């Protein structure tokens, strides 16, 4: 530090001594301080805030230092930096600083800003940052909160902002906006004083820009009397000013286009119009007849935002004026024609405005109702433009919600088209004929929207609190879906609801579907409503009771589709069964059956014929299932030929799943969960027949045919969407359709049609009476030819349309079939989840695998195909193969399961995709798990432990084979053939992780497959297969589970055989010519390291002499290839693995000396010239990560090449005693080697030298410091010893370190056997330069 503080390095001192001292203190302590200013300008807001807080805390801790002055200077400088994103950051920090330190005068800060960024002296090229610096300087003063207290600074700031407002090209209207913000907080007395200076008494100037108008409105709001006395008449809403106001608002809309918010000037004008009772004229002349005449998206969005912001300010009459005018129609047209791709719809923003309004007037339900009715009355040819599901209804009060539902029901019963704000788009007016504008079509569209709106309202209701409303909507939907009034009665309020226009069949179908959708919503949200008369009953039960009551009032109510006697009996029997089930409601199975019975009973009104048969079958199955425990033997004896009830129930559930109803899907899943324990093989086969694609292709499955009502609903929905589309989209669709038709027409041109066309053309020439092509045909011949051609092309068009319809039909059937299979998979998932120990689960393996295989092969990109594949794979892997529980009683089908294992493994090897093979292989592992976990009936142990999870089965030894059903003699050849195929075929679908999973779970099988791996490890196999064999052996031999399967006399010869094979492979080490050969050598070395660790850990007597000789013979070749750069990718890894093996054999890796590439400067150079003046500090983010040494010490160049540098000396900085001891210890323990042979540590006198042919055997290890290897009991000696070897041995002898083994401390202190650290190699940056300067100054 003496050199840093020397006058030769420091900057020239200022005249004042105190300033010099402060500057030196700043330089010494400002590392952390200067980093604050870099963090302040970063783009992340949290980083900026933290940096500002830290800066203020730092300055508060040093109130008397020079840091505050420097901080002000840096922040003022940052106001005009080139990065535009950094200027607001510095302005915010400056404001916080001025707010924290109130002793800083604001005028001085403003003067410093103007002095630093002078507008008068700034050049044209640099005027932009100067302008912004002045603007952000004023904003910093304003944001500090002290500007209102300093009148002088306020006047200067206002004057500066007026000057900045003239530079509109750079600053736009920001100076005037800042002026408005400042003056809005100025007291009235000061505002009156400033008014003549900031505002001109000229309406042409005031109405020239939005900022001037906003300034005028601010003055009118704060000092109206002063403004009137100064300007006289201040009426803005005159006929002369209306066009100017339109232009000002148009400019304001354009300027706020990117901000997506309402300009303040528009809202201020609205408030002024309301205050002066000029709202009707302002709304009509400025907005509807002004901005909307030449509508643009910015102007339209300004009007929409003004409409939303005006809702809380308007009275009920004014709301009627606004919501029934041209702006409401324009908003509706925008909702219909806006495209999401080009222009975003305004509905999310309008929903926020309406939600805020509704939430703010909870105590005024009349205003809430008027707004909801007004928005629901904006219709496009009868269809309301607002969505049926609108979340703002959650803000409605209870009274407003009831009134709104009453209005919806009344509009449904008696549609009043005159009260609607209806419109038609320009495209609809141009394209549609008069039939589309009929009142019947408008009523149909309105009623359809009301139905969905009523159902969607229940999603936002809390069923417990609003039970009355829920029941009212449910009764309304049920009654008008299936019943009609014969005679009104007070007992049934729905009978008094008379239609002004009768419902047609299409509306009734919509109503029926909406009712079941309502039923699903009620079932999902709440099962029952507590505290009511029907406590404990679900909503569906209450609706069934209501339907029964309506059926009993036949004098007043009539059913739309009358019941036959059989259907009515089915309904009555259903009610009786419900009472029986209610008596046993404590059983979960009874509740599921009750839900199923209720749902099918309500479907009796929708499809009486099908539901009647289902009800009878369901009741029969319920009675048999509930009384099965006591009467099972009698039922079997009496009704031996009848199918079991569970099979009938499965068929019923499959038929219910064919309907596109999520409620049916949930009920079927729930019921099957309670009956799956009684499932029979025949019932399971019914499910598998649906999932089997081969069987379904030829069958005529009626279950996948949808109802006609769904098709009509889809067609109506398409008509509705097509009516509401823009003409552009319609024309684009038409053009695309014509192009596709032309392409298909060109594709389907067959030779027969071409031949017919040629015949027609030839016949046309014959009609002309001339065979010559030069003469033209007569008019009669041309007309005849035209008729023939038109009829021919009409027939061809019909033929193409028939082919297209047939193709669409097949595609639709395929989609329905896939959708049905996805629903049926719910039953499979329930079975494997609820009954994983059932033997029937084993029959699901191959059908699920067939689905996965077919889906993977087809490569279908449709959503149904992907969903089917993903769901099947999830059930197979997560719920089946990885389940905690599995079947444990397979003694009766052991041989069949062994055959299935063989079949699955064979099919896995025949797949073309490895991902499919993985599923088959996992299925075989699952069967092995079942066989191993199932106890053999002949040898059942007393206390058999259960298996754990499928992912981590506990391996068993060979003795436990007799306690389970797994026959290794049958299974091992199967996997042996698969492993041989994997290690011999070029493109085998098997992978290494598959066999690793097999070996880790079943080590007894792995023991039998080891000869196959040894056979492929060396020899004529390909390099890739040998690599895989090495990898398998490396992962397998190190596993604890496999070692348990081997006795000690078996294990040592096995390790010897593997070691011999690996030694064979290593004879070609370093000669790899391809990537596969290089990978083979890498895995061979990894396997060798694993073997050596096993040998040393278990103290195996294995001869390592041949291995050591082979490795030493390849050392020179590896070193040359690494140094010359001729090695392929991975050779550095190969070199490291090689020396890991040599290290375990007792051979140390030689140290590689790093040489400096740059030249050493001459000794004649002055030491002072190498010093650099310290000009300041760089932040940590600006420092270079690696500073290269510019000049090396001349003493280092004179060192011998193989000498070890001394860590301590006169040329090194002083170090502590601990560092000296570490250097001495590292230098003593890590001596370099020559030719890769180890250096000895105090060998015994007369010890014989090592010969490569000397046999080497591993001795016993003792604790952690056991010796790793020894050759004939002696330490290997290098042929050539390094210099200073004898002295080093004496040092080791003095310290008491034994020299018998060079690796005695390796397991304990492995990290300390690194190369001795040289200061010249490990010093960086300033330390290197400092060491260099010391050396240069040393004589």
TrEMBL record:
It comes from Cavia porcellus. It is found in: Nucleus. Residues 698-721, 729-745 have a biased composition (Acidic residues). PANTHER family: MYB-BINDING PROTEIN 1A, MYB-BINDING PROTEIN 1A FAMILY MEMBER. Residues 1191-1203, 1242-1256 have a biased composition (Low complexity). The keyword Nuclease does not apply. Residues 1150-1159 have a biased composition (Basic and acidic residues). The gene is MYBBP1A. One of its GO terms (molecular function) is RNA binding. Residues 1170-1188, 1217-1226, 1326-1339 have a biased composition (Basic residues). This is MYB binding protein 1a. SUPFAM superfamilies: ARM repeat (SSF48371). Keywords: Nucleus. Belongs to the MYBBP1A family. Its main location: nucleus.
